[in-house]
Amino acid sequence: MASRSLNKVLLIGNLTRDPEMRYTNSGTPVVTFGLATNKSWKDADGETKELAEFHNLVAWNKMAEICQQLLAKGMKVYIEGSLNTRSWEAEDGSTKYKTEIRVEDMILLDSKGKQGVGSDGENGNAPKKEKEEAPAEEEVQEEEASTDDQDPLEEDLPF
Q1: pLDDT tens for each residue of 69-93
Q2: In this structure, are residues 7 and 82 in contact, taking their beta carbons and an 8 Å threshold?
Q3: Residue 75 located in a structural domain
Q4: Is 28 a member of any domain?
């Protein structure tokens, strides 16, 4: 019997840059953007300390298109996803690694952004939730078969 495991990330933070859309060689949309989360606490002397963490996010397919359309730098969002680490060989022969959060769900938590901004700077829209639909099983099998047993995420990255 296989043991269970879990790879789940939940974040609430502000976008550090606008989403950047690219396409793989096969035409699959992929968007990358950054998110900052903040933490504050009081130290032993009673001073307030703050720490910011910066996260790299990547969204694929329909979720990539939604993120590109709705998100902008500075917006507060809720993100659900999973951790993914990819590696590549640099020009100097060293192996480089990058850990990213693959976005599976996203909820807008404020009204700032690209869509519907009026002259007063507010769009009045309620927070919006979008969920990426999983590809059909036969689509996944075709993509896996076309990459000769290599991770399609690593092979298809346009950057």
Answers
A1: 999 999 999 999 999 999 999 999 9
A2: yes
A3: yes
A4: yes
By the 10 Å C-beta count (0-12 exposed, 13-18 middle, 19+ buried), 117 is classed as: middle
Distance CA 81, CA 44 (A): 35
Print the domain residue range for 110: 9-134
Task: Say yes or no to pLDDT of 136 above 70.
Answer: no
Buried b (16+ CB within 10 A) or exposed e, 101-113: bbbbebebeebbb
Q: Which helix (H) or strand (E) holds 103?
A: strand 95-108
pLDDT digits (tens, 9 = 90+) for 4-14: 999 999 999 99
**Do 109 and 77 meet the contact criterion of CB atoms below 8 Å apart?**
yes
Count the Cβ atoms, other than its own, within 10 Å of residue 79.
24
Backbone angles phi, psi at 99, to 5 degrees: -105, 130
Alpha-carbon 126 to chain mean position: 22
Name the nearest CA neighbour of 107 among 134, 130, 86, 82. Answer: 130
Q: How far apart are CA 110 and CA 3, in angstroms?
A: 40
